[in-house]
Amino acid sequence: MSTRQSPRRREVLDVLRTAPAPLGVAETAERMGLHPNSVRFHLDALVADGQVERRTEAPSGRGRPRTVYTARRGMDRGGLRDYQLLARMLLSRWAAADPAEALAELTEAGRSWGRFLTDPLPPDEPATPERSVARLVALLDGLGFAPRPEGGEQPGGPPERIRLRHCPFLELAEERSRLVCPLHLGLMQGALARLGAPVTATALEPFAEPDSCVAHLAGAPDG
Length: 223
Prior knowledge:
Elements: H1 7-18, H2 25-32, H3 36-48, E1 52-57, E2 66-71, H4 83-95, H5 99-117, H6 129-142, E3 147-150, E4 161-164, H7 170-175, H8 177-195, E5 199-209, E6 212-219
Helix pairs in contact: 1-3, 2-3, 5-8, 6-8
């Protein structure tokens, strides 16, 4: 996703960066030809964002202390972002690899992240299928998948599948589902393994329906 700072706020920041000394509100406003109240609003926002430092200077003679602003040194955080491009660059490494090798590596990468993102159950909380799947659903919900458990042979029993009604990587999944979806499947497998769950995710159907993907669950193999 690309984000860009407002042009006016960037202009305020540029004025502070090029000034040979810290500037007050009135000085900044004069250089920009704006009303001081408008400049003060942008300065307060830049301070809140951590891009500008505000401090009080003691007066050289009689008078009130003076509030001045300086731009913090560092990379410009108001510029363009394009994390989709970064993701495409990283995925291109597996797109050119042997399909079987890519599938194995991507699934294992997903498992590693699933284990990393999941806290184990407390010792006094048995890893029942219902409890384990509920924890997995909570994880997927927090990651933006909008999961909905479905199925189950008995009322109150564990679901047989999880419908994913949103994909936080939708554009990439549409372009390269054979690369993105193994990451998602592995993530679910790693999370359930971290919980010591008696169930695992066995398959993931990309776009099983126009508005959702479906993850299938089954008993985990011994060990």
